[in-house]
Protein 1
Amino acid sequence: MTSEIRSRHFNPWEEVQRYQSDHIDAGKYGATASFIGSMRDFNEGDAVKTMTLEHYPGMTENYLDKICTEARQRWDIIDCLIIHRVGEVRPDDPIVVTVVWSAHRAAAFDACRYLMEELKSRAPFWKKESLASGERWVEKNSPG
Amino acid sequence: MTISVKFFASLREQVGHGDASVDASDDLTVQQVWSDSCSITMPANTLCAVNMEYVDRFHPVNDGDEVAFFPPVTGG
């Protein structure tokens, strides 16, 4: 069970592969569910050039760990991984990856969705968009 | 005998500073820490944390606590 904050670009596909080969016992899992969130180049009808992600160091890590622990308590899963970017991101850059390994697909799907939804509503991250007309804070998340 | 105060994101820009400290006193609440550390009214959607755990604005604050104020979170 691992959660990480990254201040530099990361490749989610390589991270999943590396984590799986380092931490998940071969033959024990039958399902891997992952979600990758990336930066769009549009929001609220405007073109977005870049985005800067800020967080509350310490509390963010606490809440990501807490969310992983809750997922393990609620579902029969083997392991989970969360990686989240901070700093400046550009369109197409990955922002977050959540991954769950389990014996069967239902737990992996449900726990992966839980990690993502709880992260979006509880982990203290904030986004500031850079537009042609200036900068603005993202005030709320999309409903889903 | 102080309380450490932090403001994040748009709230930091509205308040005008990211960090502050206030003197500890008896029966201190999160709301009072806000009033002692900035000059604007707390926006209705402000989230509050004490020692990195979410609390409401009536939560008690003790000497040495870290109190944080921030807008709705938008990660992911």
Protein 2
Amino acid sequence: MHLTLPRLAALEPGMPLLPFELKDLEGKSASLGNLRMGAKLTAIVFWATWSENSLREIKKLMELAPLQAKGLQVIAVNAEEENPSADQLAAVRSAAKGFPAGFLALLDDHLSTFRDYGVSAVPTTFLADRNGVVVFRLAGFPVIGGERMLAYILETLEDRPIAPGPWAYRPHPRSVRYFHLARILLSKGDHEMAVHTLRRAAEIDPQYLRPPALLGDIEKAAGRFEAALAHYSQALKFDPKNPQVLTESGECLLLAGEIEKGLNQIRLALAQENDNGLIRAHLAFGLELLGKRPEADAEFKRAVAFAPRDPRIHALEGRVNERRGMKAEALAAYWQAYDLLSPASPKKEKEDKSNREETGSPKEEGSR
Amino acid sequence: MASAVSTALLITVPAFAGGGFTKAKLGEPFPEFAAKDARGAEISPQRYRDAIFVIAFVRPGQELSLRVLRDLQRIYPDLKAAGAEVVAIASERGGEKWPAIIKEHGLTFPLVADNGEKIAGLTGLVAYPTTAILSRDSILASSFLLHDYDFQKVMVDEVRGLYQKKGGKLSEEEVAKRRLEETFAEARREEERRNYRRALELYTELEKIDPEPYRISLARGEILLRLGEAAAAVEPFEKARQIHPQAARVLRGLGLAYARSGRDRDAEPLLKEAAELDPDPGPAHRELSRIYQAAGNLDQALEHAKKALAAAERRRP
């Protein structure tokens, strides 16, 4: 069975922010609609105390605190753990004490918003414009993407012209709606209608890269690699360094047997987002296909350290282990991926707690 | 294509009876309120005790709210003929848009501004739009959350149904039925809030009086599974299976209950069947994977693990 996981990203540039209602650290409810009122730009960062990159990202955003007076709203959504313990909450409160006035710290203790936003790793930062449309989505602590986002923030708040680039592009709203509809159709298993809808989205806005990228994912999942690569090429025309599309295209090349080409694309993606666990996991997969097992293992270790909650990384690990004939390890990895995708039940909460007692906190797991 | 888009939107936002409010309860008197319309006339259901009242809570700039208003305007003559009054209670947010909306859609029933969202607060309004129907003695007879393609028909049928009753009032039996539905809706809300123990208490109470044992047994079983009480979950699922032996949820639930209480041999055939029938076969495959792993059959365990993963991934858009 050819197992290829399509991208999980539920919220992407060009789409409106999804509404949410979470509690702040005092237990008071806060809704996105109310928090965003009057803001020219809204930055939502998903973070956790056990993630060093999260703390770096928060520190970087804290340096922008003076820009709050010019219309920047920063919302830090803590995704520490599903049903965090008292100790974990204490760690969150302690870290949040250093937040500047106006920085909102919210707790996503069921990871529901984390999942709704399609986040699989912390930190992930969304920057939305005054209409609540996502302009940037940054996973990890990427240097290049981060600098561009910072420049965009300054340009916008100081009413300077926005430098040309994919971030400045606004896809046609109807095209975005069709794209969103296509993803829902895919989730309901209606591939035919999803493809039709994506083609319609691409007709309305030929420069919007998401529809061809998703068409590529669909073709790749069906094993039609040539068709998939054609769609990915189309998507990359508009943003040749888009790390998500490069990674998907790179994976496609790996699966088609063009391993060096695939690895080159994945390395190019990694150059844009060095801390992206999923891209590293794809690199690991490519190295495995080349027979470079120790290097593959090292990259998987780094990938899991960056994004221990990304089910796609564990699914890739499962695939690699299966390829090596390590069935028990493959099974454990697939189960891990599945359990991360499924919403927690209280039973799972019991299981998770007992796991933590045996193996330590997520922070310790992440730094193995 | 445009019709496919709008159809998809309607399908994903169905209306249902009950559940529109957290404070106003089906079968109970609706909270008293009074508000003034644009002409300064006072609107209050309690002051018009001879009328069946249709109250629509709406918000400007919201597509579903506009659909509710348009539909109510279309059926307004039918509702009036059935002895109903209609009033729209508008969220004050974006209130400056209301005059233009009233004019554009030719609304002839009153629209009152809910300053400070006080009326919404009194009723515990869950979301906009919500439409409530009150009987002649101001008992909340029905409530409908959001909008659906058959909204007009449902409204007219409900109001006519009330009109045909003696004095436009609900009988004791009808009030009891509505209270039962309200309790069921409350149990569902508690479940959504993850207050599983409280939801279980409510379902257990309902089981004594609900003439539809299947849905309660299913709900009890599923909550007990969530709470990790697999052995206790067996009984309600077995009850549900006696009523609907081929229902995928029952097969899945009972299979999981058996498996998690150490009865793998009983679980396996049920889970295999559930995996074929269930629109969400992930949990069945996941449990089968564990069963085969425990039995030392890693190849089968891997097959089911991958199927579980594929199913879980498909669920996420």
